[in-house]
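Supplementary notes for students who missed Thursday's class. We covered one full example, reproduced here. Read the sequence, then the structure, then the short commentary at the end.
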Amino acid sequence: MEIEASLAKPMKGANEPMVDKKVTEGDSVQFERLLFDISARFVNILSDRVDEEIELALKQVLEFFQADRCALLEILLDETGWRITHVATQEGVPPVPLGQNLPRSILPWAYDKLTKKREALAFARLDELPAEANVDRQTYIEWGIRSNLNIPVMVNGPVSHVIVLNSLTCERDWPDEFIPRLKLLGEIFVNALARRNADLALYESEAHLSLAAASADAGLWGMEPFKNSLWVTDKLREIFRFEPEEALSFERLIAATHPEDRERVNAGVQESRETGGLFKIECRLPRPDGEIRTLIIRGRHSAKRVGLPERLTGVALDITERKEMETRLREQVTEIERLKRQLEAENLYLRQDIKITQGFEKIVGSSDALNYVLFRIEQVASTDATVLILGETGTGKGLVANAIHGLSARKDRPMLTVNCAALPANLIESELFGREKGAFTGAHGRQAGRFEVADGGTIFLDEIGELPLELQSKLLRVLQDGEFERLGSANTIKVDVRSTAGWPGSRKIRTGGI
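Structure (token representation):
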């Protein structure tokens, strides 16, 4: 190990005789003064000076005990060893690398004695170590340590640190009278480190919080209820237009708000102080140029103990743009509602025209005769009556049939057209009613008829006068009962089909049958 190599260097005066330091009353008084002086320096010490002051104190202890090395070690959380955090050495003594971990395995007996039994470890000579400390003895020999004093330090918990005093140049005794005082000194060190670490964690937490608040464009503030002082972030100073070096107070914050809102803001803060609850206040912030900004101020109190408010903290957020957006949104919603009512009113006037013109897209004309035809189409479209459309070839009987279907409740179902004059007499029955496989020569498969396909919709039989007489009875059954059989089958099929038919003749519509 690197640390073993540095400690194993031969020391000047390694063969000097043992020094047996006796404790006198003057020594005790001197050490008490030293302890008092060190303790005074650690009262209200700044975080950035803790490490420096600990090393200075270790140097003073080193000089008092005339040792060669004095260090503070931290027990690792996983209990695998310790770490050298602070050290002081005499001139000429090999340095020890700070921050290096010492594995538990090289000093197992000492580690257990200090951390498990919580006992101090002191020996003036290596032969004082028990047989079970053989591994430890070899480590001390490799490091050149002749006498050693280790004191466990614990503060409200397990052993967290160890104060170490080494003598490398000679063997020496470690007076028992100083062990409790050194343990007290270690507690001073540990408490200072704990405060330093807490300050660093708080600083880091505040830095993260400030960053998050800045990202949200919010300003943070804090107030001690019993002190007339207010802590704010730079963002909050920007929101309120406070000067960078201006000393702030709660009264100054209240004075910056709109006169009509001050009482409400003050009442909300005071209520939070009394009840310990959260508060959320919306207020206005007038600017010197006459602009009015809108703020949301949120906060809560924290208490050190019940009934004693200790600090109020919160956040202020400029919501002017959001309020303006909400106002515009409300205006737009109002306008939409107005337009909606206007459209509904207009729809009442347009609905009848839409009803009349819907389905007539392909019928062009405005004569009285054509308007009468359209009127009759509208009359029969809403019914399920069978319709006969009379008109010469080319006058638009198919357009009328499509218009009737388009205005009916069946408009979303199929509309089929059959030209009875274009179908051979021997095929029209299978075309209309379908056929089974093998019903006649050439019928290689089952085929659904037009009536079956048009189920739920409308069928238009153009040139119905060309329909063979032998099919008229079958057609009548479909029109009356909605029943028929496929060609070559005895099974009855029921359908719901509206029928319209075209016949050459006068241009008028007759309803109720053929």
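Commentary. The chain has a mean pLDDT of 80. The longest strand covers residues 292-305. If anything here is unclear, bring it to office hours.
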